[in-house]
Q: What sequence folds into this?
């Protein structure tokens, strides 16, 4: 049985009458890697700051190990944070920055030196001990910030877009390194990012946030394959989102055609969103497809071609490794499993 | 572009030459000569003025001045730091009001403010009248070192508060949050993060209070009654008695004391940032 280490229950946060977080419910199991994913300004940092103790929730309760910790100050929480803006101490060098928490805990000097050197090695910055913070590159500063939090071996580590300043190659390396560290040391991670790929590759659980409301919580595979609403579908990878009507169980109409699908349980003739992934659509001969269309644009994306196909007044985005000539008439086909039906969301 | 900028500095250089360098040179010239300088040909040099200064009487005056100025600076720091913190941490609206309240007396003439203290502390002043009315014995509040220190602290404390306030309000709040995140409580955060980061402001505050305090003559004259000579009052007395040469020598020595104390303080100013640019 997994143990919940952190739990947010009905957390709401207002800033001067503006609701930034709306009734958030989320729990984090011990040693789990949970990612908060969402567009800029959706409340990711605010959620993290509530867990870290830098904001108090307007409503709701925050539990740590089953105890309410709403009013416990940050320094008494067994949680460390890697802040979005690194926030390294400018008056201390690299060693002193990392040793800060250990010195507060009054560890022995030899022990501090040992731990700091070990963690510096882990983030690939040995021999940086005496460097001035201002002499480091953005990526190095970020890694020092991670090391400074990690060296305290907290029960829970909060990370606010910790890889934001790194270039693609280093980011990929650090993603793997962080994930390995998390597994090896056995720390619970609450990770914030707006990079969906990063969220999907690293996390055990992803919580998708939009405008202060949790849209969906699930494993990366679940979220990718079974997005709960059009927002999630669109945010996680690219999607075609089409207005449709649910005629009956397993029967949906869109683009003036009736399709068989695998969803049921909607009311008769309910208006819904149909979500189709670009890679699930297959381009065929003009007469063999379920829909007829014209190729409007072709862009090479490295591994595949991204094509826009106009069919029944809707521009379908299609990903394919085969290239079709611009302006040619084609057919589009798809299987019932590729049609995802979603309730219309209110926002 | 560069040349234009250079041109713009010329008036400033001329101004500096005329009103800063030249007077200092003149003072220096006076300090190493006899009598008045009327004729270049009759000028005769001496180091007697400096020799005279380094006799026990004047050394004592210097030490007393430094002692009083240092004490005033320490009191300004002890009072000013918490005040700066309160202002920096107050809400946006009350912040500007608090700051204004603090700066407002600075717009009044220093002489006037010092006279005001005389009427408060004097034998027939506000406090003693009050004590007398209550049937209590009156106190000798005026014309002692305590009154001088009080006057200096009152007059110069804004120069301590402002630079500290500036560094505190510029401080990145996330650094304080990181400190708490890493397990430091409020006191530890103050000692390990807030105070070290405000050091540039503290140092320029110390310089800006110590400098006028060590050379002040209005305050010791009015509130101290001029009983114990200080460097400032000594210079003023020498010049008004017509001994420009010795007065100049004392001025030059005082300038060195100030320059020296600035150099010492600047050594602590790690990153040369903050309020040091205020003056
Ligand atoms: N102290 C505050 N006072 C007022 N509004 C705030 C405050 N902090 C955050 N907000 C608002 O709350 C909303 C959510 O902010 P938050 O920082 O949590 O977003 P985020 O998801 O972390 O965005 P990003 O990806 O850009 O970092 C924003 O609209 C922001 O303006
Ligand atoms: Mg953020």
A:
């Amino acid at each position: 049985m997994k143990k919940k280490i952190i739990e947010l229950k009905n957390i709401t946060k207002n800033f001067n009458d503006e609701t930034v977080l709306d009734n958030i419910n989320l729990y984090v199991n011990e040693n789990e890697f949970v990612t908060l994913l969402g567009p800029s300004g959706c409340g990711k940092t605010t959620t993290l700051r509530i867990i870290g103790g830098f904001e108090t929730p307007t409503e709701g309760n925050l539990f740590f190990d089953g105890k309410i910790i709403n009013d416990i100050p940050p320094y008494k929480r067994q949680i460390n944070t890697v802040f979005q803006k690194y926030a390294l101490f400018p008056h201390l060098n690299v060693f002193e920055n990392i040793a800060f928490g250990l010195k507060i805990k009054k560890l022995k000097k030899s022990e501090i030196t040992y731990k700091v050197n070990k963690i510096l090695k882990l983030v690939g910055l040995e021999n940086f001990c005496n460097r001035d913070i201002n002499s480091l590159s953005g990526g190095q500063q970020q890694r020092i910030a991670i090391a400074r939090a990690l060296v305290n071996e907290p029960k829970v580590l909060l990370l606010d877009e910790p890889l934001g300043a790194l270039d693609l190659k280093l980011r990929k390396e650090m993603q793997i390194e962080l994930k390995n560290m998390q597994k090896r040391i056995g720390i619970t991670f609450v990770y914030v990012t707006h990079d969906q790929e990063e969220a999907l590759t690293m996390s055990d659980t992803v919580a998708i946030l939009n405008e202060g409301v949790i849209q969906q919580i699930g494993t990366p595979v679940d979220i990718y394959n079974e997005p709960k609403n059009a927002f999630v579908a669109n945010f996680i990878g690219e999607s075609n989102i089409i207005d449709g009507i649910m005629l009956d169980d397993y029967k949906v109409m869109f683009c003036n055609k009736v399709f068989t699908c695998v969803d049921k349980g909607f009311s008769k003739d309910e208006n819904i969103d149909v979500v189709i992934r670009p890679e699930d659509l297959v381009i065929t001969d003009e007469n063999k497809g379920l829909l007829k269309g014209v190729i409007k644009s072709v862009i090479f994306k490295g591994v595949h071609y991204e094509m826009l196909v106009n069919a029944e007044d809707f521009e379908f985005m299609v990903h394919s490794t085969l290239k079709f000539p611009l302006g040619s008439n084609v057919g589009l086909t798809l299987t019932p499993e590729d049609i995802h039906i979603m309730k219309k969301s209110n926002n | 572009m560069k040349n234009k900028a250079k041109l713009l500095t010329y008036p400033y250089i001329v101004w500096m030459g005329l009103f800063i360098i030249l007077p200092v040179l003149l003072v220096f010239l006076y300090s190493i000569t006899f009598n008045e300088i009327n004729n270049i040909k009759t000028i005769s040099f001496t180091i007697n003025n400096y020799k005279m200064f380094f006799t026990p009487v004047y050394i004592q005056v210097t030490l007393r001045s430094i002692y009083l100025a240092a004490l005033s600076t320490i009191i300004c720091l002890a009072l000013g730091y918490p005040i700066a913190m309160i202002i920096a941490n107050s809400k946006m609206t009350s912040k500007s009001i608090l700051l204004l309240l603090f700066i407002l007396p600075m717009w009044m003439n220093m002489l006037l403010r010092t006279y005001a203290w005389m009427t408060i502390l004097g034998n027939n002043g506000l406090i003693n009248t009050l004590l007398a009315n209550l049937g209590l014995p009156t106190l000798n509040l005026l014309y002692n070192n305590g009154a001088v220190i009080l006057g200096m602290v009152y007059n110069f404390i804004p120069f301590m508060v402002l630079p500290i306030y500036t560094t505190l309000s510029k401080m990145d709040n996330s650094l304080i949050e990181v400190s708490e995140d890493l397990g430091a409580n409020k006191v530890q955060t103050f000692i390990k993060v807030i105070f070290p980061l405000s050091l540039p402001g503290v140092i320029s505050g110390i310089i800006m209070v110590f400098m006028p305090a060590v050379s002040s003559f209005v305050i010791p004259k009015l509130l101290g009654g001029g009983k114990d000579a200080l460097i400032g009052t000594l210079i003023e007395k020498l010049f008004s008695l017509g001994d420009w040469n010795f007065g100049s020598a004392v001025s030059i020595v005082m300038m060195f004391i100030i320059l020296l104390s600035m150099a010492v303080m600047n050594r602590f100013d790690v990153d040369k940032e903050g309020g040091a640019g205020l003056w």
In short: The pocket of adenosine-5'-triphosphate (ligand 1) is lined by residues A 15, 20, 38, 40-46, 84, 194 (CB under 6 Å). The mean pLDDT of chain A is 90. Chain A touches chain B through 22 residues (CB under 8 Å). The radius of gyration of chain A is 24 Å.
